[in-house]
């Protein structure tokens, strides 16, 4: 029997949205083996590893849609499926 995968992260929420930056948070994933970290993806491209459940992104283009997804990685190296995408459109520049 294969090892149980961690659940995909859920509850992705954006805050502090501006024309070029935003903050992203998600719900902590509970996993029997423990979660080592989370991988953050923007438009399918790997961005960063986060130990906590938040990520700040900057250098974005105004009035542009972006799609964010997060993967949970267990202490055993097993990765969850990608989270449901969070679609965010940056604001117009002032």
User: How many E strands?
Assistant: 7
Supply the helix-strand structural class.
Answer: mainly beta
> What can be said about the biggest beta sheet?
4 strands, antiparallel
Low-confidence stretches: none
- DSSP helix fraction: under 10%
Kindly report how far apart the N and C termini lie. 56 Å
Cα-atom radius of gyration: 14 Å
Note the total helix count. 0
- How confident is the prediction overall: mean pLDDT? 96
Give an overview in words.
0% of the residues lie in helices and 41% in strands. It is mostly beta strands and 94 residues long. The chain has a four-stranded antiparallel beta sheet with strand order 4-3-6-7, with no helix packed on it. It has a three-stranded antiparallel beta sheet with strand order 1-2-5, with no helix packed on it. Strand 3 (35-42) and strand 4 (45-50) form a beta hairpin. The chain is elongated and about 50 Å long. The mean pLDDT is 96.
């Amino acid at each position: 029997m294969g090892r149980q995968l961690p659940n995909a992260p859920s509850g992705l929420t954006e805050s502090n949205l501006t024309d070029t930056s935003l903050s992203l948070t998600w719900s902590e994933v509970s996993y029997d083996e423990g979660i080592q970290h989370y991988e953050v993806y923007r438009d399918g491209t790997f961005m960063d590893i986060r130990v906590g459940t938040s990520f700040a992104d900057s250098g974005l283009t105004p009035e542009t849609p972006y799609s964010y997804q997060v993967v949970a990685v267990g202490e055993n190296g097993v990765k969850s499926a990608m989270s449901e995408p969070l679609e965010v459109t940056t604001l117009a520049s002032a």
